[in-house]
Specification:
Layout (H helix, E strand, L loop, with lengths): L3 H11 L3 E4 L4 E2 L3 E4 L3 E5 L3 E3 L2 E13 L4 E12 L2 E12 L2 E9 L6
Length: 110
């Protein structure tokens, strides 16, 4: 019995917190709350509020202390057949979108 107790206690110590969720209006991307900060590269296209985003150099950073996700970097999108390059800054705090901006760096006609 004494040999089993340390194994059981170890199982409780190494158990980590993780919760996945999605946001209405954002498709093809899943967010994951964990018990530590992390940063990952995003390489797959996703759609945010009707705008298809093609990552060029894009990262998702998670900060556990304030439960914040920030997606930032260079993306490409298109409107009416014109390709547009932009820097995106997309912030989610406590599963709520707090800001979304595109800093367009391409000339285009509307």
């Amino acid at each position: 019995m004494k040999a089993i107790l340390p194994v059981v206690l170890l199982c409780f110590v190494v158990n980590s917190y993780s919760q996945k969720f999605t946001l209405d209006g954002v498709t093809n991307i899943e967010f994951e709350e964990t018990d530590s900060d992390y940063s990952v590269a995003i390489s797959d296209n996703f759609i945010t509020y009707g705008v298809e985003v093609g990552p060029s150099s894009l990262t998702l950073d998670y900060t556990v202390a304030d439960n914040t996700f920030v997606i930032s970097g260079l993306v490409n999108t298109s409107f009416d057949g014109e390709s547009i390059a932009a820097n995106i800054n997309f912030e989610i705090v406590d599963k709520v979108v707090t800001s979304l901006s595109f800093d367009v760096s391409t000339n285009f006609n509307l």
